[in-house]
């Protein structure tokens, strides 16, 4: 079987699995789980085979015209280079782990068939984005992911949090997709094609007429899809969906799509120095702001959500300094340990009956109840904090090293010839600050979840085997991917060195250690206050499946603590570290309130005005136009008495009137 055929099957198999799962979900429920797992697992195996055959060599291109358009053609095209081959392997691995995990997590969920089908469709769409060589076909996968996220985030639609989160995710990402679509058409108009290879050739020849405008339009869509400032606000709220969905969105699909898109078309963005500076500023604000917000969250999944936003900021920062190899390296590393973090968080929520870190900090022996989640999450948090030799250290240092090179004027061997020094310094400073914040909130999460004191944590027995096995599978790349890959990946990418540099390694690791030690000191200082202000767990049904426990925990967090994001916990080390900034960081620095004032309220006011004009003005004219004939009809109807004498009298009277009128007219004439 040719490599092209294998590549076609990679996104096709999950799509067929999704279709079969939807058709057989009710009539043959016994086939649902095999149809969820096996096509995705097979697609993962084929993606590995495609990557082995591609081997980082010359890109594989294949195309056939999808439909004649009369102007710019649309081709069903594949473009598989080292970036695409490895990202597809990551997508397949994470999607397979999520599907296996979900068989235990949602074992009693009546909507599991539709859930599993949507996850398969989600996976297929992301693989289409990864392998596509035509921007219009890529857009199809891009938009399918958006609609799948809407349904999956809203899986617990009985809760108002899930309904609001799914709608918010859909609207915010669509807000970015509008300029994104305009940018795609502008790019294709300049290049005369939607084919990625022809667009890159046009850029190399200097054929783009408006590179800055096109790049900024495309960045709007990337900011929405990859949850970058200022369109990042949907991602923390999306934690109202099931935990496996969160793992899939954060690690390998949706948010990774925007970063991958920029990496694929980096020469387009590099054609404008202004676009690179904008991208660097966006990355810096995203990294720093999300780090502060993560330090103030009480919901364990919201901590991880803001963590994802910050790590995506590292990736966009690497792209801003022209090193897409470092960006994709961190995307691969982050995908492994972030999927592990979310799936381990699902086990912890199930065991503790709550998603609140404040409540977990009042529980003893939680780590003994979930030993698999404890050890694997510890590995993942160390990778997140970029502590050597875990994978996150090597990938994050490749980003900081690229920023240092850009700041000091070093040139890269990739497609970007010149990067503004301002972009390099912006990413470098923000990256070092974020390294400190990342270690701080990672240490806070570990201490509050696993070093609690108080009543014994609930004992629900051993977690389902599918939920624990995948944790250890993902722990392997979280631990070893970075050290094994940083020397080999340049051959798959643009050839730029990804090895850690001494300066940034010392600064980055030092910042991480400072953040972790400061958090530990704050936790020790605030720990005594926990006994004086006890906060009980938000108990769920202890015998329910993990999905039910999570849905109840999400729904009961706000009634118990007064806020979806934080809890009034004086023993929280994050509150001590942030001081007066804590209340602002807990609500995402009031960006939702700003957007509500600037956009939501004016739109609602405009809608109210339109409704008033429609009902009170337009309807008045319409009603008036109908009222006049009704009045005339009523008057005429009163004359229809059915009395023949009345009719004859009226006829004679009318005749007399006409005769008199005729005489008057004749006399006047």
From TrEMBL:
UniProt-listed InterPro entries? NADHpl_OxRdtase_5_subgr, ND/Mrp_TM, NU5C-like, Proton_antipo_N
Q: Where in the cell is it found?
A: Endomembrane system; Membrane
- Record-listed E.C. numbers: 1.6.5.-
Its record classes its membrane topology as:
Multi-pass membrane protein
* Domain NADH-Ubiquinone oxidoreductase (complex I) chain 5 N-terminal stretches: 68-115
The keyword Oxidoreductase appears for this protein: yes
Ion transport among keywords: no
Q: Which residues form the NADH:quinone oxidoreductase/Mrp antiporter transmembrane domain?
A: 132-403
Q: Which Gene3D superfamilies is this protein grouped with?
A: 1.20.5.2700
Domain of life (superkingdom):
Bacteria
Q: Which UniProt keywords apply?
A: Membrane, Oxidoreductase, Transmembrane, Transmembrane helix
Gene Ontology MF annotations = oxidoreductase activity
Pfam families in the cross-refs: Proton_antipo_M (PF00361), Proton_antipo_N (PF00662)
The transmembrane segments are 6-24, 36-56, 76-100, 112-131, 137-157, 169-188, 208-224, 245-263, 269-296, 303-321, 327-352, 373-394, 422-443, 464-486, 498-523, 647-666
What name goes with this protein? NADH-quinone oxidoreductase subunit L
